[in-house]
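User: I'm putting together a small comparison set for a docking exercise, and I want a reference complex before I start. The sequence is below, and the ligand is MV4. Could you produce the 3D structure with the ligand included, as structure tokens?
Assistant: Of course. I'll restate your input first, then give the structure tokens for the complex.
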Amino acid sequence: MFRKILIANRGEIAIRIMRACEERGLATAAVFSDADRTALHVRYASEAYHIGPSKPSESYLNMDRIIEVAKKCGADAIHPGYGFLSENAEFAQRVLDAGLTFIGPPPEAIRLLGDKVQARRTMMAAGVPVVPGTEAGVGDAEAIDAAKDIGFPVMVKAAAGGGGKGMRLVSDPKELPRAIAAARREAMGAFGDDTIYLEKVIPNARHIEVQILADSHGNVIHLGERECSIQRRHQKMIEESPSPVVTPEMRQRMGEVAVRAVKAAGYVNAGTVEFLVDPDMNFYFLEVNTRLQVEHPVTEMVTGVDIVKEQLSIASGRTLRFAQEDIQMRGWAIEARITAEDPYNNFLPSGGRIEYLSLPTGPGVRVESGIYEGFEVSLFYDPLLAKLIVWGESRAGAILRMRRALREFRISGISTSIPFHQRVMDSARFQGGHFDTTFLERFSMGGGGSPENERIAALAAAMLADRESKGRVTLKPPGSGEGRGMSLWKQAALLGGLRR
Ligand code: MV4
């Protein structure tokens, strides 16, 4: 087993990984950028090292600096978390070349599965159902013919892409050449590789993924599925396990296919096989995520397996301690991603100081958080502040608990996605489990602004009406002398307070 793990990440996932390490008696080393000098993960670790300026390319993506710190501090392994370098085959290789253990898959598996065309080819050869489409990257002329064979609408995808980057849906054949050119440009810019391929569009698809654990001795098991269809611009917002539409029989079939898929790719460690599921419950391989995922806790809550601890065991060469028949799912788990975004303002990022913070707790509630009262949320990084995960005996119970926990979750000083999650939990379509990846396209936050602003507006209106009717003092616009420079909201709230 290891002595010390360096966590090459930040925020909630860095702390989550440190918790597993600490419970395994392992020392932990954190790394931090300028903007994260006072971050919670820095306080939590046994030791912490500055790795550079706030810009990710100069800190959390700086491979040499991270490996240098790992060697200097005596770490014998590096856990990459998710995002940043977690799916970078070159980084994984450099970690191994430095004589350290990379807590994740082998570099060649990352490389193979990171090339979506190679991945599709590997899956076809393994008899894994893939979305109908081209077997290789296509040239412009070839693409026109291929699209006719596949049938419109088609999805143009970047071989080096994933997560929706460089993807375009084309319904009109006349639009295809332009869409291909745009996809190639975007792919070249983002990945340095403009290979594109085509797939038939799976309409009204659900995004359902299967968690895999594979050791280095050929043992592979799955831990059931996660429903991840509630996405906004390819960002998952709410995840749950099990899926409302997957039956035990379908779960077994998807699990077997997922195990076959990762075996075919020579995969080791934790990974996730993503599927698209059409309205007839046919499922198609989409891609493999070669990393620990944000939403892994919902699987942990229903199976009782600590996935990060299993990653540590696998990386230290241990044989899986679970056989497939040992894995039982019990109850229902839902995760809400609490982000520093304003859902009333098109999810505009909202940085700033956290003035007040109160975390939910109580039966069946888990919070993975990277924030504290007084912390300055910067906009250098992903807006994820915390994950709220709940467990219930049933889906309805989990939804009720999520609503209760969201009500307890108080963050002031910045806008957050909490009101968005409250509204989703209240929606009949979500409660009924009848949704697909288009759910949020037709979802709105309702008429006015945030409940807070609506309350103050109502109060101000009542105050104004009341005072007008009695000829008594009225609220003055700020800066008019009598208004003592206060905003109308503040005056209304103050007057409201006086009248209590
Ligand atoms: C698709 C698809 C439908 N048909 N491919 C989205 C990102 C990446 N995981 C692949 N994704 C999709 N690929 C075919 N052939 C639907 C998705 C998809 C999606 C597409 C648009 C908007 C939101 C989406 C959420 C999940 C999956």
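Residues 403 and 426 are 8 Å apart (CA to CA). The chain has four domains: 4-103, 132-200, 206-442, 454-499.
User: Thanks, that's exactly what I needed.
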